[in-house]
Model the fold of this input.
Amino acid sequence: MGIVQTQSIKNTIITFFGFGIGAVNALFLYTNFLGKMHYGIVQTILSGANIMMPIMAFGAQSTLIRFFSHYKTEEKRDEFLTFMLFFPLLLIVPISLLFYIFYDPISNGWVIENPSLKPFFWLIPVVGLFMAYFELFYAWVKVHMKSVVGNLISEVLYRFVIMVLLIAVHFNWITKDTCIYGIALSYLAQLIGMQLYAFSVKRPVFRFVIPENLKEIVQYSFFIIVSGGIAVMLVDFDKVMIPLYLDISQNALYGVAIFIATVIAVPSRAMTQIVAPITAKLIVEKKHDELQDLYKKSAINLQLIGGFLMMLIFLNIKQLYLLIPNNYNAGINVVFMIGLSKFYDVLLGNNNSIIVNTKYYRMVLFFGVFTVFLMIGLNMLLIPIYGIFGSALATLITVAIYNTIKLIFVVKKMNLYPFTIKTLYSLGILLVCFLLFYFWDFHFDGFFIGKIAIAPIINIALKSILITIFYLVANYKFTISQEFNAIANSILKKVKLIK
Done:
């Protein structure tokens, strides 16, 4: 996994750096400076845009990765890249017209419950458009195995812009309403940055030729719209449904909890940037054994890292919420529900990349559509009863069913298995770790720097040290991951703890 390891490590570092900025934004700046109502509006707009993005993109981001390896000459690849640049317009133009014509009927369901959303609802398709072309240019660099700088633009740029905007609100340089419009424009900045980098990696040579396999491209793109829409809806549709039943401020509480839980999936996001095109290439070349090896390695390594992050979050969650101002702790139980769903995603390694690059991809559409209806039904049932916890529970149930279907599909159709006996050992380590550390905390109360309580920080730091020592030693002793042990041995040799 040479190129995978190198770029995945770099991507992970960049992604964590971006998440660090995002954590400051989500947990402290939004909660202190923007307020629950405006924060809830931001969550609703961005979630709606994420749902529209796969449709706006016409699946071009995945279609580009899927078919790029099929073209063997530079001329054919230039023709294909040119075609993909304009391909999304086939849906963007009619969708934009329909949204404009039927704006009032579409927005009324949300605006009636939350009138404060009305001035901003139109931003949803605009930001969705920015996201769509961003993903297309990101795929442009991925197929050229240049994911690191793209990941920097993806994970850091817009979060930094948002941080500046929130600080500007604090100093009354801009209003909260202006900040929301600025956040939308941060996605335009992200798009422009990715476009400039993509064209520096491979300058477009415009050859306007319709591909010979147009029918296959269109069919696959429609599949990506559905499958990509399903994947996004499993992540974001709950935040779109909450304002239909609850005050939009509840989306702020839910958004904070989602952000905390999403940290578990950071390594998966980082590794996918480079694993996806490699997976596509191995499938095209019919290298089953190498694909099986990649599948197992990605699954166990992501399980090890994701499990570690999950333990750090779950075992410190009560202390962490003491650091978040303005009474957001109603979202603690949401963190557990969403965290478990994210961990199940991590467990499957590059499962999704395998599915979308096989000839069997159409067969999972039925299950995906069923899953979406299940998710909508569960949200409609559980949100009125349990509030945001009901939405999180609906997400966990839906993700568990959907991921199990995808796992069975890959096992049966591709004869590929992500799990080994090491998977069970790893789950055992996680269970023991949870039982050892969940039911107690250090108690350092009364420490303040100005108005900031630092006791929770001390408690989290000390407990995290103990968790880290236990977790890393246990995984090393049981050799859960050959790659982890190789890295550990290299470090231990440098510090002369082993020969």
In short: The first helix runs from residue 2 to 57. The chain is about 80% helix and 0% strand. The longest strand covers residues 448-449.
